[in-house]
Amino acid sequence: MDKIYLDHAATSPMHPDVVDKMIPYMTKIFGNPSSIHHFGRQSRHALDEARQSIADAIGAKASEVIFTSGGTEADNLGIIGVALANREKGNHIITTAIEHHAVLHSCKYLESLGFEITYLPVNEEGHVSLDEFKSSLRPNTILVSIMLGNNEVGSIQPISEIGSLVAEHQAYLHTDAVQAFGVVPINVNELKIDLLSVSGHKINGPKGTGFLYIREGSRMVPNLYGGEQERKRRAGTENVPGIVGLSNAVVLAAENFEKKKLEYVEFKYKFVDVLKQQDIEFSVNGQLDGGLPHILNIYFPGTNVESMLVNLDIAGISASSGSACTAGSIDPSHVLVAMYGKTSERIASSIRFSFGYGNTMEQVERAAVETARIVRRLTK
């Protein structure tokens, strides 16, 4: 039985080109980039090239890119680092109720230090209200952290409009772009973003890699202390093979952007069309149109999410109930709770399918047919 992987929002397979680019830096080019000899200079050159490639992809300067161990560290460094460095200007932070836990838990930590956090609600499509956002801005607001695209339901926030509002305020704008990067166009200057988090393993790059963009002139304290790497903003010997792989994944994502976007949208529509043809009851959580092209979150009335996932896995289909960071958790999806309320049946009966590199239309159609069979069996 051929396995079908439809959980690319949790992690994605590494692109073969990325692997090929990394191998020399795990075998021959192994020097410490901080060393001044030949071996070190080789590694330093690779870092410089990677930093410039990533900066070019988002319209930034190379000096504004900090390499991290992934999206979680980038979120933590951006949110906590900026909040602590700017505390004399105020202690108010704005975020949303549907952020990734890397953002929410960073904010909870700051609350324990005396910061005040506003958690903006969302509507049933997973969007924040611009009017509510405007009314939440205060003179003592120092940071706004709103994700670009949601990792569970795919809703895209009005970052451009929010960026224009924050640009006229003292606050910094951070956006978690981990799920949106590679499928949504991002230019940090056009969107007026001050900080942006990205993870390598979501874009067919290596796990344990990522970066934080931080606008030149922004004040931030580090969360790691040691050497002077990354302009004293992130101590520790750089993961050269991983950074080379990350850079290559970013370049590939930019090159294939439009093609991927169209393909994933077609996958979503095919999956939904097959479910309709199979005549089962379901509804899409959030929007079918206008969200992240690769994420499809579906509510199947009368089913149980654990039973669905087990049966899908037995059938060779890998999907999830939401964020991989909460796998095994008995807590309901905080995203669906924010969208539909704590008593909604959707919370216990929704599955996220997410598409990516290696998927075919045949796989998507076969997965949808098998999903319909499982739903019929479980709702008898």
Q: Over all CA atoms, what is the radius of gyration?
A: 21 Å
SSE order, one letter for each helix or strand: EHHHEHEHEHEHEEEHHHEEHEHEH
Tell me the name of the CATH class of the largest domain: Alpha Beta
Low-confidence region ranges: none
InterPro entries: Aminotrans_V_dom (IPR000192), Aminotrans_V_PyrdxlP_BS (IPR020578), Cysteine_dSase (IPR016454), PyrdxlP-dep_Trfase (IPR015424), PyrdxlP-dep_Trfase_major (IPR015421), PyrdxlP-dep_Trfase_small (IPR015422)
EC number: 2.8.1.7
Pfam family, one: Aminotran_5
Catalytic activity: (sulfur carrier)-H + L-cysteine = (sulfur carrier)-SH + L-alanine
In short:
By secondary structure, the chain is an alpha/beta fold.
List keywords for this structure.
380 residues; 12 strands; 7-stranded mixed β-sheet; alpha/beta; 3-stranded antiparallel β-sheet; globular
Describe the structure.
Its cofactor is pyridoxal 5'-phosphate. Belongs to the class-V pyridoxal-phosphate-dependent aminotransferase family. NifS/IscS subfamily. Keywords: Iron, Iron-sulfur, Metal-binding, Pyridoxal phosphate, Transferase. It comes from Litchfieldia luteola. The protein has a 7-stranded mixed β-sheet with strand order 2-8-7-6-5-3-4, with helices on both faces. The mean pLDDT is 96. It has 2 domains: 4-12 and 257-378, Aspartate Aminotransferase, domain 1 (Alpha-Beta Complex); 16-255, Aspartate Aminotransferase, domain 2 (3-Layer(aba) Sandwich). The protein has helices at 16-22, 24-27, 38-58, 71-85, 101-112, 130-136, 159-167, 229-232, 240-255, 257-277, 305-314, 334-340, 361-378, and strands at 4-5, 65-68, 92-96, 116-120, 141-145, 172-176, 195-199, 210-214, 283-284, 295-299, 317-318, 350-354. The two termini are 26 Å apart. The chain is of the alpha/beta class and 380 residues long.
